[in-house]
Structures are given as structure tokens and as C-alpha cells.
Amino acid sequence: MAKPLEVDQVWLDRILEQVNGLQYGSVNITVHDGRIVQIDRTERTRYDQPPHKQASTEQKAANGDQLRAVAQ
Length: 72
Known about the structure:
With about 70 residues, the chain is α+β, with helices and mostly antiparallel strands.
């Protein structure tokens, strides 16, 4: 049978610290033998999409020109 999870105020504060200010991402809590042993925070940064598909195509063409210049 699983041991009950032991969480004290110190761990609650640590968890809140990791979650505070997180816009996009996740907080993973690792538990061993009913005790928290690790907290991992993964934060994502999202960027707006270009307003037009044409801008994306023009950017790809410019990037291709830059790569050809570096390869020569």
C-alpha cells in the first residue's frame, strides 16, 4: 500500500514559488517513498505568428540566401 504523502509548509512554499509567475509551462513534482524529493519547472515562451503568410515566405527566402552565402 502507498505511503501517505508528507507535505510541510516548506514544500508548499517551494511549490508556490515555482508556480508563481508561470504563464505557459508545467511544474512536475517527484515523490519517492511518500516524500517530495524534487520539483522541476519547465517554462515555455510563445511568440505571435506572423500576420501574413507572405511575410513567412519572404523570411524563408531571405534565410535561404543567408545560408547559401555562408556555405560558399
